[in-house]
């Protein structure tokens, strides 16, 4: 395995670990790091098999594993959750609906996000984040919007699993990836998940992200708000927003 790291905004990093051995197809598995003063926040934590890569990535951006103060999961699947065991001193958060997806020893280390209103939650120790229940992929999948950096971390609610990085770049406008996204929306409809997926997507339309950070593959940059609206329309047969 190898990896690629990119700084999205001051103190906000995207990292993608290339995994050719744990899946039927090679893919990149992503996690993200927010450095806020004395806080070091991980959004998703990878698999335990990524331990060496994660430590190397953190060291590359000037952080040791014991300095991680919070781990926020977008959902409870093992490829995003199991690596959290490495961060014994961190507060760890997950949506309550995904708590039972964690192994018994890991579950005891997590607390649930706090309800703010309707489908919006918070991790009280980390300011400037809206944690939005997106209602698809897993019962407690959330997208996390960082108001400070305007990055939206979507987990596997929407991702580019098994896709190569466009031109080898982790962060890209990538028109081909955008076009593939319309097929992703169509596939959700074909799988019978259309209603829940579109409801989740609709909950993100009020935000104005500059970076669309998914659980696997390229981070899209530029015109993300309009892109989301077009995706929603493509799956909603042109119904008004």
Properties at a glance:
globular, 6 helices, 241 residues, 15 strands, alpha/beta, 8-stranded mixed β-sheet, 23% helix, 7-stranded mixed β-sheet
- Evaluate the radius of gyration: 17 Å
**Low-pLDDT runs:** none
Extended strand count: 15
The largest sheet has its strands arranged as 8-9-10-11-12-14-15-13
What is the typical, i.e. mean, pLDDT?
93
Count of separate DSSP helical elements: 6
Shape: globular
End-to-end Cα distance, whole Å, is 42 Å
Helix content: 10-25%
Biggest sheet architecture: 8 strands, mixed
Strand content: 25-35%
Q: Give helix and strand order, one letter per element, not per position.
A: EEEEHEHEHEEEEEEEHHEEH
How is the quaternary structure best described? single chain
Structural class: alpha/beta
